[in-house]
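Supplementary notes for students who missed Thursday's class. We covered one full example, reproduced here. Read the sequence, then the structure, then the short commentary at the end.
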Amino acid sequence: MNARAWLHLAALLAPLAAALLLAWVVFQGELLETPWRAPALAAPGVIAAQLVAWWRWPALERRAVAGEGAWLTGLGMAALTHVLFGVLLVVALMIAAGPRAYFGESGAWSVVGQIVFFMLASLGATGWLSFPLTAGLAQAIAALRRKELSRDTR
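Structure (token representation):
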């Protein structure tokens, strides 16, 4: 499997694992009665991670070509994923409830506060682990890509 495929596989499995663990802790025994909760919680994280992996792949490839470390790119990817998670979760909630019901008596500006809330909740729940893991993953992916590029030039 090539470096980009490994990146996207990690962008699928990491948020899925985080959501399953969080759902297990929060919902405990109810999780088996309503198994849709974990995938519903995981979907915004998986989509956010996939989008960030797609968007930041050129930066990882540049680091690989230059022979530089990619851990800083990985930290940026983790930060972008958490921000995008907040946005996507609010959009998902808005779609599920319907815009009229979602906004209720509050205005559209309350969405910004909700995005910040969910982003901070995401950082608090998994950020302590996602930042170092994503930095290490980016470093490993760049090294793997460097090996792939060196094989292609032979």
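Commentary. The helical segments are 3-27, 30-33, 37-66, 71-97, 99-103, 110-152. The chain is about 85% helix and 0% strand. If anything here is unclear, bring it to office hours.
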